[in-house]
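In this section we walk through a basic example: taking a raw amino acid sequence and producing a predicted 3D structure, encoded as discrete structure tokens. The instruction is simple. Fold the sequence below.
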Amino acid sequence: MTDRATDPLALRHGPLIAQIWDQIAEARRTARAHPTQDRAAFWLHRIRHLRRQVLTAHKLEMTRHDASTQAIDGWFHPMTSTLDRAEAHFATYLASTALAQNQKTATAR
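The resulting token sequence is shown next.
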């Protein structure tokens, strides 16, 4: 997470960026608590939605032309990389729990 007082994204898109970081923090807490499949599926869907919001904000910044592409990409990198890792975590968790359930079902037969 970045400092909201100096982060260019927080200064330009304040409430949106704060909301996304808060949701990322909540997703982290959920991941640490070993969520149910339903909660993990919810967070996977939510993280993908947040990523789309970030990409929309990125596109808006690119159309402003008041900063270099490299600078804009740098502003967004911490958030996009965090969302990518969260998405991968929940996707892997769902895949592993589905595999475990399938193995239990096969063993029960």
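Looking at the output, two observations stand out. The longest helix spans residues 69-108. The CA atoms of residues 62 and 76 lie 11 Å apart. In the next section we compare this with other chains.
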